[in-house]
Write a structure and sequence with these properties.
The protein is an all-alpha fold. The protein has 3 helices and no strands. It has a domain at about 50-89.
Amino acid sequence: MTIWYDILFAVNSVSKSLQSKDMCIDIAIEQLKSLSHLLFLPLTSIFLQKIHKNFVPQIRDALLKLVEVSEDPKTKSEANCLATYELEN
């Protein structure tokens, strides 16, 4: 719920600022950029969480297959570590 307050507050602030008679174009561009970042970050986070949840089994299987076929001990170790520990969290 807090995220919606932050987003709407930022949109309202930028909107009021853009409507001012003495608005400088440089400031307007910076405010719009910061607003776009504020809007983009929560959506990216939600998207990544859904991808992570939906594709963890496939990623784990691919890493375990890499452990089986790889001849490099370092690659085997890192892939095994990722498959068993990192993807569980």
